[in-house]
Amino acid sequence: MHYLPLTPRDESTILKRLGVGSFEELLNQIIPPEIQYKEKIGLPEQGSEIELRRILHNLAGQNLNTDSCISFLGAGVYDHYIPAVIDQIILRSEYYTAYTPYQAEVSQGTLQTIFEYQTAICELTKMEISNASMYDAGSALAEACHMAHNIKRRKKVLLSTLIHPWYQQIVRTYLKEYGVEIVVCPADNGITDLNFLNKLINDDVDCVCIQHPNFYGNLEPVDELEKIVHRTGALLISAVDPVSLGIIAPPGEYNADIVVGEGQGMGIAQGFGGPLLGFFASKKEFIRHLPGRIVGETVDVEGKRGFVLTLQTREQHIRREKAVSNICTNEALCALSSLIYLCTLGKQGISDVARQSLAKSHYLYNRIKELKGIKPAYSREFFKEFVVETEKPADELVRALIDKKIFAGVPLTRFDQSKKNYMLIAVTEKRTKEELDRYIEVLSQII
């Protein structure tokens, strides 16, 4: 917000109504003083609007971002190119300030974009139905586990240890009070251990969750996994990278039951880690258990095409005893961004982005193999992301390369303190050969 209309009198009235004497006193009631940020950030006690804008602009200029640095960051949020048409369309007022789709007669435009988004997700994943989107991939995965338990009514959920650690934490949070045991299947050289999964799977298991490509970037043996999972009638839940579906088999082709994923790579800015987009699709037979909104196509009394929320009522989300989920909203603007992205690129464009990401990541992978002091951690097939093992702590390499305006990757100590010499590197279609060679040159000097 560029302009705040509150006057000192307005502020005083609000504080008095809240029963505090100052804004600082209000903060102290909410945020413990010992964890508050007390250092000055360079703002004067007072100044003109011109002066304040100049100061804030200079402060913001101290941030490093993917416009000023070469980025190899990944782990769920990626530096894919965002076509200019996306911002141009989503900033239209009818999208940016759209009315809730619960009132269909005034929300046909919003409902149609959601319907088209659902169609695009089904086309991309080769699944039969999709909802109107969710908060992010982590919450979508947790809702998928919740949905699987509602369908199967068993006792256990199996998670591959190679699912994003933060997604696993969200699953644990969602299922903590749900009476479901969470069992983690270990890894075998960078992929899910199939032998161990065979031992864990039984008639008590609601679902098995995998990530493909997995958190380390490696491709899972999904056809073998599917046979193991469905042998006991459990559901297969697959978390996927949507861009990868331009070149690898979509989950509908290897008989996944529920599919979730992070849509940020489809036309959504990285920001500071959000907002994100969780997409959610499944087989049609499970549609009554699907969380969130679903938009359907219909005709009005005059036979004209129209769109409505279908199969679920608003009360189904609000009334606990009737709810399949507590999710009663969706990331509508982010979903629209991804819809525009998919429509702009088309099937060939998605394939091109995926192929470029694949080729460039493998080029860098092979160049890194030539260096001393760093090596790929696995020799598995991967899409656009891979793990390297370093002689120096990965944190040190990351800090050193930041000085060269390069985001080297994500140190795995962020997720596991025992992995201080491991780093996750992602390469998207945006990276040029010159940037990749520059990375190798600087890396070789530092290690």
Brief account:
With 447 residues, the chain is α/β, with parallel strands linked by helices. It folds into three domains: 8-56, no CATH class; 70-83 and 347-446, Alpha-Beta Complex (Aspartate Aminotransferase, domain 1); 84-340, Aspartate Aminotransferase, domain 2, CATH 3.40.640.10.
Structural commentary:
- This protein folds into three domains: 8-56, no CATH class; 70-83 and 347-446, Aspartate Aminotransferase, domain 1, CATH 3.90.1150; 84-340, Aspartate Aminotransferase, domain 2, CATH 3.40.640.
- It is 38% helix and 16% strand.
- It is built from 14 helices and 17 strands.
- Strands 2-10-9-8-7-3-4 form a seven-stranded mixed sheet, with helices on both faces. It has a four-stranded antiparallel sheet with strand order 13-14-17-16, with helices on one face.
- It starts with 7 loop residues before the first helix and ends with a helix.
- The mean pLDDT is 93.
Poorly predicted regions? none
CATH class of the largest domain: Alpha Beta
Rg result: 24 Å
Mean pLDDT: 93
> What's the number of helices?
14
Q: How many domains make up the 3D coordinates?
A: 3
Strand order of the largest sheet: 2-10-9-8-7-3-4
Helical content band: 25-40%
Structural class: alpha/beta
CATH architecture annotation name of the largest domain: 3-Layer(aba) Sandwich
CATH topology call of the largest domain: Aspartate Aminotransferase, domain 2
> Separation of termini?
45 Å
The biggest sheet amounts to:
7 strands, mixed
Overall shape: it is globular
Total strand count, please? 17
CATH superfamily of the largest domain: Type I PLP-dependent aspartate aminotransferase-like (Major domain)
Strand content: 15-25%
